[in-house]
Amino acid sequence: MLDYNDLNENEKNVLKQVLNMQEIPTYYLEENNILLMEKREMFEYIYMYDLKKIKDTINLIERIINLEITIQDANKTIIQKLLESKNNVYKLSNEHYVYKEN
Q: How far apart are the first and last CA of the chain?
């Protein structure tokens, strides 16, 4: 898990845009269930922890093998592509993402 202060200035600006805010109060992220993570940690949090049944695992594998890769995705990893397909996940940089629980 990342702290807001772990982000560089560009990532902080992207986060402010994503949240539609000028400044982010000290405990805002925590109070609103907004998580900052590196891409691998975010992938595990969203996808891997929920794999409690074989059916869930098969569904994830099917989703990966059916993932359509476009020219715009040429330099992305599968993890990045999956994370960016989630409505409540926002890319701050190639390594850092934000997750806002509903």
A: 19
Supply 15's token pair.
């986060």
Q: Which residues contact 2 (CB under 8 A, 6 or more apart)?
A: 36, 37, 38, 96
Please report, as a single letter, which amino acid is at residue 61: I
pLDDT at 48 over 80: no
Backbone angles phi, psi at 37, to 5 degrees: -145, 160
Q: What is the pTM of this model?
A: 0.70
Q: How far is CA 79 from the centre of its chain?
A: 9
Looking at residue 46, its pLDDT comes to 81
Q: Where are the alpha helices (DSSP H) in 1-89?
A: 9-19, 28-31, 39-43, 54-65, 78-84
